[in-house]
Amino acid sequence: MAQLLSLANEGVFPITRDAVGQLLPHLPATGMPHPGTVQGEGKLAGVPSLFVRLASCNLRCIWQLPDGSYSRCDTPYASFDTREILSVSPQHVKQLVAHNLGQVRHVVLTGGEPLLQKGALSELARMLKEELGLHLTMETNGTAYYEPLAKHIDLFSISPKLENSTPNSAKLAALGLQTSGPLSFHGQRRRNIEVLQNYIDFCRATNKDLQLKFVVARASEEEEIKRDFLDQLRHWQASDVMLMPLGASMEELQQTTPLVLDMAIRNGWRFTPRVHIELFGSKPGV
């Protein structure tokens, strides 16, 4: 039996047609009468794209903002709470994409953590590349690697998690969460240098692209990025290192953006905005 994909509640987005090409009865969350949005982050920020959001994650990020408030994963429905999921075949997802491309040529495979569904996702990626000829970005937390999937990907958007992402007792109490599962082992799993090196080596050997995208909120994280990640890795380039300010709303981004911008420029790294939040706010499906 063919493997199924578990998609988070918005699944393939933003779209205007179903898997057989029939118009949907409502506009996508962007409010525009056509499918597609723009990639909001990283090297391809601003590029028209479709997204495929997979459910489930092996980490549970809860960050602390400079004002002391907490900001958990900006897609909790793909990590903390995956009750609203849709199980579909890779062929079904390919058909949804095919009927909603228009002029879009970029598809982003995101999560959750896509590598938790590496088998079925490899088949989807193969179809999107070989049958539709699309450019594929895969967004991952960098804790798992699978070369049969990697060979179909054009850009690896890897977001290694800094210590600030780790749940602790204060964060759990503030959000009314109990220590269990990924909440208890996030700290041990968030950093995997061997896996990160595998991605870098694969990209250098195959002329594929990657970005190491760190979510930053504190001045001390500059040294953490260097000590715990970059100093442990080989063959990366400064243009691969991207700093993104922590925040899921414009108000939160205002707290972190000046610090992160300064840090990126001083180190010759790249600063990445969060264009989708500037355009649409924090709502899903955009």
Description:
The chain has 286 residues and is an alpha/beta fold. The protein has a single domain (5-280), classed as TIM Barrel (Alpha-Beta Barrel), CATH 3.20.20.70. Helix content is 30%, strand content 20%. It contains 9 helices and 12 strands. Strands 1, 2, 3, 6, 7, 8, 9, 10, 11 and 12 form a 10-stranded mixed sheet that branches. A two-stranded antiparallel sheet has the order 4-5. Helix 1 (90-98) packs parallel to helix 2. The longest helix has 18 residues, at 250-267. It starts with a strand and ends in a 6-residue tail after the last helix. The model has no long low-confidence stretch (mean pLDDT 94).
Topology, number of strands = 12
**Through-space gap between termini:** 33 Å
Low-confidence runs (pLDDT<50, min 5 residues)? none
Task: Write the CATH homologous superfamily.
Answer: Aldolase class I
Q: What portion of residues is helical?
A: 25-40%
CATH class: Alpha Beta
Enumerate how many helices there are, as a single number: 9
Shape: globular
- Named CATH topology: TIM Barrel
Q: What is the structural class?
A: alpha/beta
Chain-averaged pLDDT: 94
CATH architectural category: Alpha-Beta Barrel
Most strands sheet: 10 strands, mixed
Radius of gyration: 18 Å
> Beta fraction of the residues?
15-25%
Question: Would you list the SSEs in sequence order as H and E?
Answer: EEEEEEHEHEHEHHHEHEHEH
Number of domains: 1
